[in-house]
Write a structure and sequence with these properties.
Blueprint lengths: L1 E5 L14 H12 L6 E3 L2 E10 L2 E10 L7 H11 L6 E7 L7 E4 L8 H10 L5 E6 L8 H5 L5 H24 L1 H11 L1
Parallel strand pairs: 1-4, 1-5, 5-7
Antiparallel strand pairs: 2-3, 3-4, 6-7
Length: 191
């Protein structure tokens, strides 16, 4: 079992905001693989199933925490504990203001980089040693950061984001089939 966790904020007012890029990737991935759902458990919207990638089946759980970004760790901890999943089998998908909109970076571990959702995941897991896929949303410039990340993508950003969501799904598939090191080489070389 692998856990793929997209970070974001629940509710219509946050739909399609920059901070919900992680949710967007999971939604695209579920559609791409014909996964039905979500249902609510672990304080999250979850979709479980099996996907065939690279000719092999992969059992997984997609998790969208409904606890708001700053408390994302609660859902992660509950799902990890319930399925007794090793941290190496967890991938967190998250927005990042340090990269241009649509740029992707896959890492085996690292710091939260100021991201409150990742800070909370680190707090509850007690480690930074989990894989993360970061999706660039551009730097906020003169806009206060909280207003920027909770704002909607511009038309120009949306044009760059749409193909990036497909590439992010391919990055998740690479993580499933190749493992983190080979997937990093593949994903980060094209960004």
């Amino acid at each position: 079992m692998k856990l793929i966790i997209g970070l974001g904020n629940p509710g219509r007012e946050y739909a399609d905001t920059r901070h919900n890029a992680g949710f967007m990737v999971l939604e695209r991935f579920a559609t791409r693989h014909g996964l039905a759902g979500p249902r609510q458990r672990f304080h999250a919207g979850t979709i479980d199933g099996s996907v065939t990638v690279g000719g092999a089946p992969h059992k997984l759980l997609l998790v969208q925490p409904l606890t708001y970004m700053n408390r994302s760790g609660q859902s992660v901890r509950e799902a990890v504990d319930f399925y007794k999943v090793a941290v190496k089998d967890v991938l967190i998908v998250v927005d990042d203001i340090a990269f241009g909109c649509g740029d992707l970076r896959l890492k085996a571990m690292g710091s939260a980089g100021g991201h409150n959702g990742l800070k909370d995941v680190e707090r509850v897991l007690g480690t930074r040693a989990y894989a993360r896929l970061r999706i660039g949303i551009d730097a906020p410039g003169r806009i206060p950061q909280v207003d920027y990340v909770l704002g909607r993508f511009t038309a120009d950003q949306r044009e760059r984001l749409d193909p990036a969501l497909d590439e992010a799904c391919q990055a998740v598939e690479a993580w499933l089939t190749l493992g983190i090191e080979k997937a990093m080489n593949k994903v980060n070389d094209r960004s």
